[in-house]
Amino acid sequence: MGSLIGSLLSASGAMRAFEKGLTTSQNNVLNVNTPGFVKQRAVFEAQPFQPENNIMGGVTSRGLINYRDTYSERNVQRRNTLSSFDQERATRLQSIESVFPVGQGQGIAGSLNRFFAAISQLSVAPNDTSSRRVALERASDVAFTFRRSANLLLEQRGATQVSLSSSVERINSIATRIRDINASRRGDSQASSDPAADAKLYAALEELSAVVDFDAIRAPDGSMSVYLGGQALLVIGDRQYDLSTDIVDNRARILSSDGAEITSELSGGTLVAQIDLFNNRFPDYLDELNTLAIGFADQINSTLAQGIDQNGNIPTTALFSYDGTLGAAYTLQASKLNPDQLALAAPGDPGGNQNAIQLADLAKKPLIENQTFVQYYGLVAGQVGRELAAARDGAALQGDLLSQARELRADLQQVSLDEEATYVLQFQRSYQATAQLFRTINELTETILNIMR
Fold first, then answer.
1. How many other C-beta atoms can be found within 10 angstroms of the C-beta atom of residue 261?
2. Is residue 301 part of a domain?
């Protein structure tokens, strides 16, 4: 009789174990598309089988195996950080490519060529009123093109600053989610093995890796500590340390919760790309644009100041003006001169064309860093194009490497519906067979009890 009771207990324990295995596979299937979820598998352990001692063996469940692979997760996070950095640079640089067009007759180079073409025409007919008026219009076009280009750069820089602030807010928001998961794990001993909480945690970490680089360290209590750049603490246990950003001396800074600057400690993700563009690339482009505007305006003004106008007078108003403090390109203006005020003649030669020839020759002289005005512009535009091409190539390469890292991770830990279907069928049959055994043993037990009565 004791053997039958032991067999009943063994069968019922096996049924509970198979039921847990079945439930685990069903949960895997239900979460196949859940971000951060990895497959779980019930662990089975054979029970001692000693019939002579009424120990009837069987099987029991000893918890779950989590197929999370730490190395593949970290590899995906690193690749995501690098890919996001290059992708953000490519996107931002593409937005300013139109500021430096290199097509025939486009942008600043086109307006400079048209201006010097008008001046060249005046070197042939210096006293033609219509040609003088065209030259003044071309001067206004040059100033407008510089202002528009500088304004577009400033607009893109401002948009980058807004995105930078949004990235910091996003980091803080993700940190809040990680902190809350940590708090739930520390308050519940079973929460550290909860696949739902585990999925939420790693989904949050992967999202964070797109914004900034970090190191994540798991504590013995199951909570996760996050250090930005491997140094600046963002989350530890149930405590969160928010970031902030500010602008000092026209330079963006990232600040820790205690106000210390940590900008230099960060090295990847969209946030770092935005910082680099705001602090370095956009100011460099503006500086180069200002250098060209100053060089052009000063050379034209200086040459005109050496001549006389159509009335034989030395010019009192410069053709171009700008505010160097606010930015020459951003503030470049063409004065509203009358056609007869253009000083195209040399002193002592009223009505001549000597100064017009000197002006036209400026187009061919290497006056800015051993380059002509148009050549210098071409160097700046070429630099933008090269940096954009490099960012695109980097984004493509890192995107491929990220895809490979995700595929490797998926091979190790992603739920396979075909695999789960096999396990579900296996556990169903095992459960049904054990249930049939249980019923048979139960019937035998009842029969023996009835006989004994």
1. 13
2. yes
Q: What angle do CA 282, 284, 289 make, to 5 degrees?
A: 95
Q: Which long-range contacts (CB under 8 A, 24 or more apart) does 420-426 make?
A: 420/25, 420/28, 420/29, 420/39, 423/21, 423/25, 423/41, 424/22, 424/25, 424/26, 424/29
What value, to the nearest 5°, has the Cα angle with vertex 225 and ends 224 and 230? 135
Nearest-CA neighbor of 302 among 318, 321, 322, 323? Answer: 318
| Long-range contacts of the stretch 58-63 (C-beta < 8 A, 24+) | 58/9, 58/10, 58/11, 58/13, 58/14, 59/13, 59/14, 59/17, 59/18, 60/13, 60/14, 60/16, 60/17, 61/16, 61/17, 61/20, 61/21, 63/193
Give yes or no for residue 385 having a pLDDT over 70. yes
Q: Please count the structural domains in the chain.
A: 2
Buried b (16+ CB within 10 A) or exposed e, 104-115: eeebbbbbbbbb
Q: Does residue 257 lie within any of the structural domains?
A: yes
**In sequence order, which ranges of 308-372 are alpha helices (DSSP H)?**
328-331, 354-361
pLDDT at 187: 63
The whole-angstrom separation of Cα 268 and Cα 214 is: 9
The pLDDT-based confidence of 430 (bands split at 50, 70, 90) is: confident
- Check whether residue 427 and residue 389 sit in a common domain: no
Residue 227 sits in the same domain as residue 79: yes
Give me the chain's average pLDDT, please. Answer: 89
Is residue 270 in some structural domain?
yes
DSSP 266: -
Residues near 132 by beta carbon (within 8 Å), at least 6 away in sequence: 122, 310, 339, 340, 342, 344
| Mean pLDDT of the region 278-289 | 95
Domain that holds residue 441: 2-67+417-452
Same domain, 171 and 272: yes
Contacts of 19 (CB under 8 A, 6+ apart): 427, 431
* pLDDT per residue as tens digits for the range 179-228: 999 988 876 656 556 788 888 999 999 999 999 999 999 888 888 999 99
Long-range contacts of 298-303 (CB under 8 A, 24+ apart): 299/362, 299/367, 300/139, 300/359, 300/362, 303/355, 303/358, 303/359, 303/362
Q: What is the pTM of this model?
A: 0.84
CB within 8 Å of 118: residues ≥ 6 apart: 131, 134, 135, 137, 138
Q: Is residue 80 part of a domain?
A: yes
Do 124 and 25 reside in the same domain of the chain? no
Q: Is there a contact between 10 and 444 (Cβ–Cβ < 8 Å)?
A: no
Q: Are residues 33 and 114 in the same domain?
A: no
Higher pLDDT, residue 417 or 377: 377
